[in-house]
Amino acid sequence: MNRHKQRMGKFLLRLQLFPPSKVKAWTFAHEEWLDTLRFESSCHRMVFQEYRESIRETAERLRRYEKEIELLSHTHVQAPLIEALQALRGVATLTATTLVSEMVSVTRFASAPSFMSYCGLVPSEHSSGVSRSQGKLTKAGNAHLRRVLIEAAHHYRHSPGVRRKLRERISGLPPEVQRMAFEAQNRLHRKYMTMLGKGKHKSKIVAAIARELAGFVWAIACVLEKKDDQNLVLDSSIGG
């Protein structure tokens, strides 16, 4: 989708066509402005229409994908974990499904730091003798996990709170999961504001928040895994 929009933007830029001031790109007002454009060249008209059609087709395809993912999130074998992860702020169905599908099983990771490392969210390290220095993120892990965690991390700039959509998502979830999700809100928002107050660059702040958010994802997955094990033991004892 972004690639098609960028092509359209560059095309309009070459023709020195700019939207009215205060009109943000790809909003309803921007779409209305695109409807008013007229081109003398038939070649320009054709390219413009093709670009717009490709954007519409991609948007429709994405809507179909999201609808199918929404349906599968309720019937998949990992549905309980998908629902539980949505207790975290900034994690709705699509993000939770991505996290679960890329994680596969929390048993693959012995600890939260190992999961953070798998996401490529730990800083690189250069050591020599007793000296130790850390650099940029390794970005050596799973790019899909890293992307959705960083996108979710932006939400923690807001003050903690459980509003309507989040309240609907946490309804019926285990109390421990709800407690951990609200703890994540408080901890990560506090960390965000502390780093911002120290003058840290926002990209560094978001990366740090995403790293700790990965830890909460791992912890919630462990809670669900432990609950499944307990249910399995209970079922076995009843069957015996």
UniProtKB/TrEMBL annotation:
Coiled coil regions in record: 48-75
Residues in the signal sequence: none
Keywords (A to Z) from UniProt: Coiled coil
InterPro entries: Transpos_IS110 (IPR047650), Transposase_20 (IPR003346)
Residue ranges occupied by any Transposase IS116/IS110/IS902 C-terminal domain in the UniProt entry: 83-158
Highest taxon of the lineage: Bacteria
PANTHER family linked: TRANSPOSASE FOR INSERTION SEQUENCE ELEMENT IS1111A (PTHR33055), TRANSPOSASE-RELATED (PTHR33055:SF15)
Protein name: Transposase
Natural source organism: Paenibacillus silagei
